[in-house]
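To fix ideas, we reproduce below one chain and its tokenised fold.
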Amino acid sequence: MPDVTKTPGTAAESAAETAAAAGEAAVVAAPASSGKPRSLWSDAWRDLRRNPFFVISGLLIVLLLVMALWPSLFTSTNPRNGDLTHHFLTKPEYGDVFSADWFGYDKQGRSIYARVIYGARASISVGVLVTIAVTLLGGLVGMIAGYYGGWVDSVLSRITDIFFGIPFFLGSMVILVSFSDRKVWVVAAAMAFLGWTQIARVMRGSVITTKQSDYVTAARALGAGTGRIMFRHILPNAIAPVIVVATIALGGYIAAEATLSYLGLGLSEPTISWGIDISDAKDSIRDNPHVMFFPAGMLCVTVLAFIMLGDAVRDALDPKLR
């Protein structure tokens, strides 16, 4: 990440020295008319608010999170109750958008609309849990490797290469096939066990670049300890690329969970998941395509929303794109 403290002018140099002594993130000088220092994060937030893709994706993600946390706000129908008198016979009815008949029924007579609403919880939970786990694990490994260097970097990099060489889907399937009851935390743990390597590489490269900055050298000269330098000086300035990668990867993990569930190796019944519903609908796609269309459509919208959010965050945090 570029050293944002290297801005021409005496005021910018003074701001950089103050940030190093106080152990804060580097700041850049604001325009002379305001006379106030402005951080990289405040600049990024200002750009994000002006980005229509961020606004659209943010609203979609908020709606999906509300749907996952409080599905009863959107439907009062039990998604597990089936009525075989429907059994594909009831096609989608668009009169009442909150009706159980809005999306039709699956082969067991269960409301597709209710299952789409309740399926958001499991799918998004897996994506969020995996993203948090890989960010913490990969970020810690990458920070230690990039900061200490030498034999520590060599050992951790070789371990990362070993995990990076394991195919993600194949390794996840090998792990999950040994579990008969695959709940959310089981699937998330299996995916996180193999998915932290990209974050580790990104964090390592960012830390190597950041630790050579002048404010880190100044903090070390002032007697700051290793922990303070790593978490007060380096981490705030090295975390931006990791946030971008993690945000984009979150949508990919949701899609990966759906793929594993479609293959019968992800979440298992009675858990409600978009991947499970897509798998159940594959045999009737010709005669009743609506059974697969709605859960697949929600999956695509969710993944697209997180990818759009990640792209917007990348544009805001990368100074080269300003």
Q: What stands out?
A: The chain has one domain: 57-321. The CA atoms of residues 81 and 110 lie 6 Å apart. The longest strand covers residues 27-28. The chain has a mean pLDDT of 81.
